[in-house]
């Protein structure tokens, strides 16, 4: 069976971007013909900033609660945190020796996050995509659902796998397919249609958090930046209108409709009429998730038990693949 792997960093609270671009689609995939493995990539989370240990622990549990509250079933999917399965970092070391410095330095996320003073960025931030390649390859995953922003990292993962196979003359690691689909592969900031919605944006008004209550969601949508024109009735009319496009994409993704179908209904309406309709849909879809997350967060021991059970299951797949990798490379065991 085809095998899916994907992960999210516990680097802050979940946003609507993470939900629509990632989690919602992870949940859909678990009911298709895939074996599904979903990870809380805590080792990735410390590459850009270190957290207070209690904060990182809370964020990890909250992300786990977010996955489950969104419909991820730990009985159907393997759900675990990266640091409990040491094979990820063991394979990442091999990949650090396969990947070239030039490849890493070309990554736009590295350039964005390291900023001008690269001398001061962590070595982990530069190596991030090699660990991500290991996350995928240690399961021989064939498909990786992600948002648009991760496309470049996935291409690098393919390059690393290809170079490994070539250098050792084997056909060992699969050439993984990115799965980037749906209306909301890139949800933009509510304050600036040219920036992606991000958990680390300093402005809370730029994003909808999965923990926001109905009032906060409605207020953020009411204040979202727009242009003065009414909505078009066809998708071409969204050209050059990034904020309008973003709100329509969000509506389409939440409603499981195409952008064309949404515009057939709301085309011609001014934002003053569309925003309340969007708020109502967002609250209807997101409020049950935030309520369930809050309930699950009352039971941290259960969350931890789910993660350790998931980690054991993950290890049964990862350990033999790492062992074979070591044999290919020539490590004596
Ligand atoms: N705005 C977005 N629209 C669509 N998909 C998104 N994803 C993130 N933001 C959007 C997808 O969510 C998954 C997990 O992302 P991540 O937590 O590993 O890191 P990120 O992409 O760096 O997300 P953030 O929210 O922007 O975190 P920070 O601020 O810490 O960098 C991925 O599949 C991603 O594509």
Automatic annotation (TrEMBL):
<keyword id="KW-0963">Cytoplasm</keyword>
<feature type="short sequence motif" description="'HIGH' region">
    <location>
        <begin position="10"/>
        <end position="18"/>
    </location>
</feature>
<comment type="function">
    <text>Catalyzes the attachment of tryptophan to tRNA(Trp).</text>
</comment>
<feature type="binding site">
    <location>
        <begin position="17"/>
        <end position="18"/>
    </location>
    <ligand>
        <name>ATP</name>
    </ligand>
</feature>
<dbReference type="InterPro" id="IPR024109">
    <property type="entry name" value="Trp-tRNA-ligase_bac-type"/>
</dbReference>
<dbReference type="GO" id="GO:0005829">
    <property type="term" value="C:cytosol"/>
</dbReference>
<keyword id="KW-0436">Ligase</keyword>
<dbReference type="Pfam" id="PF00579">
    <property type="entry name" value="tRNA-synt_1b"/>
</dbReference>
<keyword id="KW-0067">ATP-binding</keyword>
<dbReference type="InterPro" id="IPR001412">
    <property type="entry name" value="aa-tRNA-synth_I_CS"/>
</dbReference>
<dbReference type="InterPro" id="IPR002305">
    <property type="entry name" value="aa-tRNA-synth_Ic"/>
</dbReference>
<keyword id="KW-0648">Protein biosynthesis</keyword>
<protein>
    <recommendedName>
        <fullName>Tryptophan--tRNA ligase</fullName>
        <ecNumber>6.1.1.2</ecNumber>
    </recommendedName>
</protein>
<dbReference type="GO" id="GO:0004830">
    <property type="term" value="F:tryptophan-tRNA ligase activity"/>
</dbReference>
<dbReference type="InterPro" id="IPR002306">
    <property type="entry name" value="Trp-tRNA-ligase"/>
</dbReference>
<feature type="binding site">
    <location>
        <begin position="196"/>
        <end position="200"/>
    </location>
    <ligand>
        <name>ATP</name>
    </ligand>
</feature>
<keyword id="KW-0030">Aminoacyl-tRNA synthetase</keyword>
<feature type="binding site">
    <location>
        <begin position="147"/>
        <end position="149"/>
    </location>
    <ligand>
        <name>ATP</name>
    </ligand>
</feature>
<feature type="binding site">
    <location>
        <begin position="9"/>
        <end position="11"/>
    </location>
    <ligand>
        <name>ATP</name>
    </ligand>
</feature>
<dbReference type="InterPro" id="IPR050203">
    <property type="entry name" value="Trp-tRNA_synthetase"/>
</dbReference>
<dbReference type="GO" id="GO:0005524">
    <property type="term" value="F:ATP binding"/>
</dbReference>
<keyword id="KW-0547">Nucleotide-binding</keyword>
<dbReference type="GO" id="GO:0006436">
    <property type="term" value="P:tryptophanyl-tRNA aminoacylation"/>
</dbReference>
<dbReference type="InterPro" id="IPR014729">
    <property type="entry name" value="Rossmann-like_a/b/a_fold"/>
</dbReference>
<feature type="binding site">
    <location>
        <position position="135"/>
    </location>
    <ligand>
        <name>L-tryptophan</name>
    </ligand>
</feature>
<comment type="similarity">
    <text>Belongs to the class-I aminoacyl-tRNA synthetase family.</text>
</comment>
<feature type="binding site">
    <location>
        <position position="187"/>
    </location>
    <ligand>
        <name>ATP</name>
    </ligand>
</feature>
<feature type="short sequence motif" description="'KMSKS' region">
    <location>
        <begin position="196"/>
        <end position="200"/>
    </location>
</feature>
<comment type="subunit">
    <text>Homodimer.</text>
</comment>
